[in-house]
Amino acid sequence: EGRETRLRVVLRVRPLTCTETRRGDRRVVHSLGDGAVHVSAARHDATFGFSAVFDAGASQEAVFEGSGMRQLVELAVDGFSCTVFAFGQTGSGKTYTLMGPLAQSETQPASPALLGLMQRSFTCLLEQSRSRGSDLALSASYLEIYNEQVRDLLSPGPPCNLPLRWSKTRGFYVENQLSVEFESLEAIVGLLLQGAEPQPQGWDIDFHTYAGRKLENLSVAKPSASTGAKASPPQPQGSACPSKQGTLCFVDLAGSERVKETGSSGELSVEANSINRSLLALGHCISLLAKPRGKRTHIPYRDSKLTRLLARSLGGSGITLMVACISPSSHCLSETLSTLHYASRARRVTTRP
User: Fold this and answer.
1) C or N terminus of the chain, fewer CB within 10 Å?
2) How far apart are CA 176 and CA 319, in angstroms?
3) What is the rounded distance in angstroms from the CA atom of residue 89 to the CA atom of residue 94?
4) Would you list which residues are annotated within the binding site?
5) Cα 1 from Cα 242, distance rounded (Å)
6) Which helix H or strand E contains 271, and what residues bound it?
7) What residues contact 220, with CB distance under 8 A and at least 6 apart?
8) Range of the domain at 159
């Protein structure tokens, strides 16, 4: 607590797809062990180091245990603000790593072996809750950022835009977001699947998958007098019965590829540019935060709503895990190198939990 802590950055390399194999793509990313990977291609020969590297054969359980996710859940229960990012180009395995197969539903759940970091974290969190008896109350909220608009995915009816506010005690927060209490794995997975349903914007599932715009925020707090769905009010000041509140926030960032690579046009092109501006703002903040504290200039968190919401996770009092997902294919070399450089910069960012 209070000590300078580096962001933990891990890398996941997915297998070559059938399409890539038929096309004759070469594998250009090779794991060297001890958290290092080597990129070997024409005019590109570089080695990158991370906290951990999971190659194509790594299971979902291995990623959960090896990334330090279990420890992050325990820290959230102890009252810390914890965040997990997944980023990389579309199709690199971000959503699969976080949520498991997209085809799952309440009637057809995914195989236990394929469950992602989120479901495994929920299980771990509920185990902690049961071991502590009535000391914990669990609630969840689900947000998306779409074209610089923040939307609540758990509120009934069409998603409505919510305002972002700032206060000295809370920092940036979403006003009137719905928070739903839960006590079982079935309940929280139901909320997760509800929020992950495609929205009626005509989005192309092959380009910037719908989960790529969402922030899943899972908060852990002491029990309150009210139960059920509620809007999260500001924390009362000078409460007679102070309580700890920790948060565990999952962020599935949109695909990082250039617009010309997607073939999008019209509204989808506008959407892609909006997403990329948001990711560019995030990358700019990370680049500045990666500098030594004495040499940092102003960090432009206000450049986008994404960076405003993630300000505490990136450079404040939070604890952050970043999961970089890449393809080993030679066809994706440019985007893979971009993700690797992005992740390398993030490793130099520090926070004071």
Assistant:
1) N
2) 25
3) 8
4) 88-95
5) 19
6) helix 267-289
7) 76, 77, 125, 136, 137, 138, 245, 246, 247, 248
8) 7-99+115-199+211-221+245-291+298-351
* 230 part of a folded domain: no
Handedness of CA 245, 235, 159, 285 (dihedral sign): negative
Q: Are 169 and 229 in contact (CB under 8 A)?
A: no
The bridge status of strand 29-33 relative to strand 36-41 is antiparallel
The span from the CA of 83 to the CA of 88, in Å, is 17
Annotated binding site for ATP: 88-95
Least confident range from 95-109, 261-275, 276-290, 307-321: namely 261-275
In a domain, 59, yes or no: yes
Instruction: Give the model's confidence band at 328: pLDDT under 50 very low, under 70 low, under 90 confident, else very high.
Output: very high
d(CA 83, CA 105): 25
What letters, b where the CB count within 10 A reaches 16 and e where it falls short, cover 286-311?
Answer: bebbbeeeeeeeebebebbbbbbbbb
Higher pLDDT, 171 or 12: 12
> What is each CA distance from 170 to 29, 214, 215, 339, 351, in whole angstroms?
42, 21, 18, 31, 17
The single-letter code of the amino acid at 108 is Q
Q: pLDDT at position 246, please?
A: 85
Task: CATH number of the domain at 332, please.
Answer: 3.40.850.10
pTM over the 0.90 mark: no
Tokens representing 322 are: 């970043």
Give me 112's structure tokens: 């236990």
Q: Which residue has the tokens 């085809």?
A: 103
